[in-house]
Amino acid sequence: MTSKKLIVTGLAAVLVLGAPAAMAREGHGPFGPGMFRLLDADKDGNLSREEMQARAKERFKEADTDGDGFLGREEVDAVARQRAAGMVEFMFTRMDTDKDSKLSEAELMARADDHDGFERFDSNGDGTISREEFREVRKKMRDGRHHPHGPRTGEEHGD
Fold first, then answer.
1. Cα→Cα distances 115→23, 54, 101, 148, Å
2. Whether the Cβ atoms of residue 75 and residue 90 lie closer than 8 Å to each other
3. End-to-end distance of the chain based on CA atoms, in angstroms?
C-alpha cells in the first residue's frame, strides 16, 4: 500500500469513527451498536461498502470546514480534538459511576477488572501470563483476530 493510500485510509477511519460524543450519550463505544446503527443507512442490519464509504465522505465534508476539498493540518487537528473530547465524555459516561465528574482509582480499577482481558491472555487459566501466552495474544491482535481495527502492521513494542 502506498503511503498516500495508507494516509487516506487512516484518515477515513478517523473520520468514520469520529462520533464518540454522540455514541457516549447513547452509551456505546466506537464499535458498539450505536456506531452500527449510525452506519447502517438503509437499516437492513448489514453494512455495505457503500454505506461505509458514504459515512467517510460525510465526515470528510464535515471536517473540510473551508470547503477546498482538502484537509489541512488545522482541520485534522480540529477533528482529533473533537474525537479526544468525545472519548473523554465516553470515559466519564461509562466509568464515573457516582457521577461526581471525577474518576477515582476505584472506578478505574473496577472498569479495568471487568475489561482488562486477563483471561484472554491467561489461556491455560493458571492465574499468570507466561511470555508465550503474551506473544500468542499479541500475534492474534496483529493478525486482526482480536483487534477492533483489524490486522496490525509493523513491529510490536516490548515483550
1. 19, 32, 21, 14
2. no
3. 28
- Cα–Cα dist 110/122, whole Å: 19
pLDDT (tens digit per residue) in 31-56:
566 778 888 889 988 888 898 899 88
Whole-number Å distance between alpha carbons of 18 and 86: 8
Measuring CA to CA, how many Å separate 55 from each of 39, 83, 148? Answer: 7, 16, 18
3-class secondary-structure state, position 75: helix
**Sign of torsion over alpha carbons 23, 29, 39, 74:** positive
* Whole-angstrom distance, CA of residue 21 vs CA of residue 108: 20
Virtual CA dihedral for 67, 73, 75, 78, nearest 10 degrees? 180
Q: What is the pTM of this model?
A: 0.48
User: In the block, which residue shows the cell 480499577?
Assistant: 109
Q: Of 11, 9, 5, nearest to 80 (Cα)?
A: 11
